[in-house]
Amino acid sequence: MNAALHPAGHRPRSRLRRLIAPLVVPQVFDFWASRLHPTWSWERPLARIVGRSEASADAVTLLLAPNRNWAGRRHEPARAGQHLMIGARIDGALVSRSYSLSEAGRADGRIAITVKAIEGGKLSRHLYRDARVGDVLELGPAFGEMTLPARVDGRWLFVAAGSGITPLMAMTRQLAAQGMPVPLTLLYWARRREELCFVEELRAIAAAHPNFRVRFLLTRQEPRAADEDAGRIDASLLDAHVDDLAARQVYACGPGGFVANARGLIEARAQAFAAEAFTPPPRAVEDTGTVAVTLARSGRTLELARGESLLTALEAQGLKLNSGCRMGLCNTCSCGKSSGATRHLHTGDVHAEPVSSLRLCVNSATSDLVLDL
Questions:
Q1: Considering 251, 277, 303, which residue would you say is the last residue of a domain?
Q2: 3-state helix/strand/coil string of 307-340
Q3: Distance from C-alpha of 351 to C-alpha of 333, rounded to nearest angstrom
Q4: Of 121, 122, 127, 243, which residue is least crowded by CB atoms under 10 Å?
Q5: Which domain holds residue 223?
Q6: Mean per-residue pLDDT for 109-119?
């Protein structure tokens, strides 16, 4: 039997599991086990939606209860600021994308994601519009390095725009649970007031903790509350709300253009700066021509365009490959390369190590390649 069959907590002996493992067909086990409980599984990490709440006019927060197969429960717990792959079956096909945790570290092991409905986003619109309490989602391991250190000290500034608020909200909640041990200012941009998430909770945290200040910055509406202002990110707006930038450790998160502007305005002036963008940066180089790419496992050789991501080029040839964020963050599309050279599409760097791993979504071929596919 699987540990997931004991949600109250009694984990079966690993020795028994090892003994019966050769007799178990996971797919068959999962089929019958799911009839008893939706998240019982031999080895698949799954989560049931146990809570749903509107986060803004175009976003929803889903509270998830993972089963015991999820690495975020079995090993190192998922941390505020990290992301994970979420998968749902839509029209019979599994669709997976990367989402930030908006809450982590709960005593009950539950986690939360806050999903903004994106125009043309198949999974985001499904989760926003159709996902309901009781539905089961597939989970990947938590990943991401922009997390709070084990010992938090100094003065901090969080800068967010759009969906970039989600990992920073998780970290704000973590610090609030610790009594807000350091001074923290959060500057949060949105186009309109109704697109802001967590407004009342952030105001409650600010009221409870003098060390915390939040300011809501609107780009298409005029301010009407004391904690609101208007305007896009620029030096004067930063200086108006943060008079000690040189003493601040800064985390920034949001769309690629916003993060690039934040980096240009803040990185050289702050004590430390780290950022994550939710859209990929522009390509650094455009190559032309084609190369021969050999797939070692299948023995196929394909002619692929240079300058196009290997993931996109291989999918155009009919290959169905695992992928997630498609921005080089989640490692879902990582693949072994035994020979040839590739170029990172965002930095322009060429990598010619004979045996290495590469993310197919952000690398293109610059010579003939042999891939472990």
A1: 277
A2: CCCHHHHHHHCCCCCCCCCCCCCCCCCEEEEEEC
A3: 17
A4: 243
A5: 155-277
A6: 93
